[in-house]
């Protein structure tokens, strides 16, 4: 079982090596790097490449490790005990009717091997990360209400992403294989663009990359990343005129590249207001 990239995802040699080692050794793979470098997309492409189902959690600061595994709906059970469960088919005496499994629980209980994505784990607090340590390493968790152990029927392919909003704990890092995805240079970016737009002209590609890297070096609060570049090229190609994208403050569709108001104002700069689309 080896992942070699897809027609929509460029897999560099170093990244490909760590991905396949993690899959073979059934270890979580923690991907770090700035937003827009393809960390999240990699999990979806692995699932697509293997024809596997995805289970994903878009992490939030309010998440607790347990709810990624399961949730016991005590309020619903109490309501059913007082007013009846109607035609729902729930049995108030059967706790399993009131358990809802999260993405980790569903991945562990599945008969097939799934891809489990924990996206932006750095948004959670250290307690949540610590609660996941043994779960991810051992492939099991306990349903506390009935002291029942759920073990993975097949260990999922676990992809975890981090934008480094906050530091992850050392114990958590020890249980993962880690890889930092650097921002790609012009040669790699060209390959990525051609995967999405195989018929793009050399003229348009060169012009777009020149302006793109100029913006990335412009000291903006949120410089454009790969995803923004692809959106921008798509916007340019949607027009009848697919020539050069313009330059300076006349750059077309700047709102696809810069997303924060301060960056847009900085881009416009002082002087007469130059309209952009």
Q: Quick one: overall form?
A: elongated
Number of domains: 2
- Largest sheet features: 5 strands, parallel
Report strand %. 5-15%
> How many whole angstroms does the radius of gyration measure?
23 Å
Pick out the low-confidence regions.
Answer: 272-277
In short:
With 277 residues, the chain is of the alpha/beta class. It has helices spanning 13-25, 39-50, 65-69, 74-83, 103-109, 126-138, 170-174, 186-196, 202-216, 226-237, 261-268, and strands at residues 29-32, 54-58, 70-72, 99-101, 115-119, 140-143, 148-151, 157-162, 177-180.
Write the layout of secondary structure elements.
Layout: H1 13-25, E1 29-32, H2 39-50, E2 54-58, H3 65-69, E3 70-72, H4 74-83, E4 99-101, H5 103-109, E5 115-119, H6 126-138, E6 140-143, E7 148-151, E8 157-162, H7 170-174, E9 177-180, H8 186-196, H9 202-216, H10 226-237, H11 261-268
Parallel strand pairs: 1-8, 1-9, 2-5, 5-8
Antiparallel strand pairs: 3-4, 6-7
Structure characterization notes:
The chain has 277 residues and is α/β, with parallel strands linked by helices. It has two domains: 138 residues, Rossmann fold (3-Layer(aba) Sandwich); 83 residues. 40% of the residues lie in helices and 14% in strands. The chain is built from eleven helices and nine strands. The strands form three sheets. A five-stranded parallel β-sheet has the order 2-5-8-1-9, with helices on both faces. A hairpin with a 4-residue loop joins strand 6 and strand 7. It starts with 12 loop residues before the first helix and ends in a 9-residue tail after the last helix. The C terminus is likely disordered.
């Amino acid at each position: 079982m080896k992942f070699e990239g897809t027609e929509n995802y460029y897999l560099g040699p170093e990244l490909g090596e760590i991905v396949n080692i993690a899959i073979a050794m059934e270890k979580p793979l923690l991907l770090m790097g700035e937003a827009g470098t393809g960390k999240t997309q990699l999990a979806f492409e692995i699932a697509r490449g293997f024809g596997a189902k995805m289970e994903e959690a878009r992490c939030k600061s309010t998440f607790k490790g347990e709810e990624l595994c399961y949730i016991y709906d005590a309020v619903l059970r109490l309501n059913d005990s007082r007013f009846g469960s109607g035609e729902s088919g729930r049995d108030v005496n059967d706790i399993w009717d009131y358990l809802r499994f999260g993405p980790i629980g569903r991945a562990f209980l599945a008969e097939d091997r799934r891809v489990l994505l924990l996206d932006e784990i750095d948004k959670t607090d250290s307690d949540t990360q610590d609660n996941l340590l043994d779960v991810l390493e051992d492939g099991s968790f306990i349903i506390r209400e009935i002291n029942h152990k759920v073990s993975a029927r097949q260990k999922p392919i676990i992809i975890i992403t981090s934008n480094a909003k906050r530091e992850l704990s050392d114990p958590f890092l020890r249980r993962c294989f880690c890889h930092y995805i650097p921002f790609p240079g012009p040669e790699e970016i060209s390959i990525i663009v051609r995967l999405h737009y195989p018929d793009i002209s050399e003229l348009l590609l060169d012009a777009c990359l020149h302006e793109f890297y100029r913006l990335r070096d412009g000291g903006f609060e949120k410089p454009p990343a790969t995803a923004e570049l692809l959106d921008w090229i798509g916007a340019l190609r949607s027009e009848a005129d697919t020539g050069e994208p313009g330059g300076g403050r006349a750059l077309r569709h700047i709102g696809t590249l810069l997303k924060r108001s301060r960056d847009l104002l900085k881009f416009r700069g002082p002087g007469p207001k130059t309209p952009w689309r």
